Amino acid sequence: MTCHIPADCLDEIFEHLYLEKDKFTNLYTCLLVNRLWCEVSIRILWRNIWSLKHNFYVLKESTKLISILTACLPDESKDLLRENDIFISTSISKDLKRMNGVYITTPTSKQPLFNYISFCKVLSIGKIDMMIKKFFENQQSSINSRDSNNYHKADLVTQEILKMFMNRITSLKKLSYRTFVIDHRKGITFTNFPRSRECLMDLSELSSDSDIHSEFFYQLSQICHNIQSINIIFEKAVSNGLKKLISSQNNLKYLSLYQNHNCIGWEELIPYLTKHSNTLIRLKINGNDSGPFSFITIFTNLRELILSTNYDNTFNGFNDLQYVTFTHLHTLEFHHGCPKVDVLIKLLENNGKNLKTFVADIPDKYTDILNNAINKFCPKFKTNILG
Fold first, then answer.
1. Which residues of 201-216 are buried (b: 16+ CB within 10 A; e: fewer)?
2. What is the 3-state secondary structure (H, E, C) of 256-313?
3. Angle at CA of residue 131, ends 186 and 150, nearest 5°
4. How do the domains of the chain map onto residue ranges?
5. pLDDT tens digit string along 324-350?
6. Per residue, what are the HEC states of 123-156?
7. Computed from CA positions of residues 92, 94, 100, 106, in that sequence, does the dihedral angle turn out positive or negative?
8. How many CB atoms lie within 10 A of CB 235?
9. What separation in angstroms does the CA of 232 have from each of 221, 282, 303?
10. The whole model's pTM is what?
11. End-to-end alpha-carbon separation of the chain, Å?
12. Cα–Cα distance, 289 to 301 (Å, whole number)
């Protein structure tokens, strides 16, 4: 007598497999058992298709994924692309079937066997950008000419793919809006597509360049009020819409500020971060200059504070922090540079009660001094990385 494991039980089992180090190999094996196992595995793998081991900078890899996305497009979108002389093969080859086992079709079929897009919980605009760039670069090289209309064609493909994501994803959880192609793509505002409100309403994580078109951030601020994690990569400007989006959140817990080389800093955003002084529990800053850091003093409920700078002992405004008590702080890290040793010792004295991890890039001559301070002020200490 055949024993069938219920789908909800398979979900639990496969979720545990997904958490393991070799998750893709494990779930790929499950794909080959039967239709039910395949469907449950596919649903988990496509939840974050961008995390799979693809190199989106390589033509072959990017073409495979853009082909499957195009195959999933509704007929009206396919017709629109054809009307604009955009032809992307949607007959799925055996190569697609072998690609980590996440595209399941018959070799001659024109439609995937599953509604892959509906399984997605993560959307990466940057990865879509990269795939489309590679596709059109290949088109140009194959005919040894440059189509001046390629920017329009690329925008049209992006538009139809994003429209499909907005229409078929019931609840997007993570959105990465980084663009690696051309500046005018920073103006794509897909928040006005049909069903985008339903798709984006429960968004909990956002990673974005600071200079994305202001209208995108403004529209997102009207839809999303419970984003818990925001990662900002600073470029040449800070959009006014981004300021509005940050101030409109109700429960921001995790904030990451990353300053690219020779780009603007985070000063403009500081007044809009103050609203979150009670809710923010993790702050990570990576900057090429020395501050300012004094605004951190308002986040007294921080549990994790991770700072990275390229300049030793030049933390502008950081001295103010040595007098602040972060009652719940359990992780304190400094990378590539850190405050002066006396400031660090004062920090440990005021905040060592619950500290479990302390990382500091300091000269060897100060190691013993800091170790003594850790032993004295940090009774719960577990991890110590100095030097």
1. eebbbbbbbbbbbbeb
2. EEEECCCCCCCHHHHHHHHHHCCCCCEEEEEECCCCCCHHHHHCCCCCEEEEEECCCC
3. 65
4. 1-47, 54-168
5. 899 999 999 988 777 788 888 899 999
6. EEHHHHHHHHHHHHHHHHHHHCCCCCCHHHHHHH
7. positive
8. 19
9. 15, 14, 20
10. 0.84
11. 63
12. 26
Whether the upstream peptide bond of residue 112 has omega within 30° of 0, thus cis, is no
What are 380's two structure tokens?
Answer: 């719960």
209 by DSSP, 3-state: which? strand
| Residues whose CB is less than 8 angstroms from the CB of residue 283 and which lie 6 or more positions away in sequence, other chains included | 255, 256, 296, 299, 302, 304, 305, 306
Length of the chain: 387
Q: DSSP secondary-structure letter at 218?
A: H
Average per-residue pLDDT for the chain: 79
**Burial degree of 125 (CB within 10 A; 0-12, 13-18, 19+):** buried
- CA dist 133 and 62 (Å) reads 9
| Closest of 254, 316, 268 to residue 288, by C-alpha | 316
| 247/241 Cα distance (integer angstroms) | 10
Is 90 in a helix, a strand, or coil? coil
Q: Report the C-alpha gap between 99 and 69 in whole angstroms.
A: 14
Q: What is the DSSP letter of 182?
A: -
> 240-278 pLDDT, tens per residue?
999 999 999 999 999 999 987 777 778 889 999 999 999
Q: What is the dihedral of CA 65, 71, 73, 75, to 10 degrees?
A: 160
Amino acid letter, residue 33: V
Q: Which residue has the higher pLDDT, 167 or 68?
A: 167
Q: Tokens for 185?
A: 């793509």
Cβ–Cβ under 8 Å, residues 123 and 51: no
Q: What whole-number distance in Å separates Cα of residue 161 and Cα of residue 141?
A: 24
Distance CA 374, CA 378 (A): 5
The Cα 56–Cα 319 span in angstroms is: 43
**Per-residue tokens: 321:** 């922090």
331-335 and 229-234: which strand pairing? unpaired
**Whole-angstrom Cα distance, residue 272 to residue 164?**
33
Residues facing 309 on adjacent strands: 287
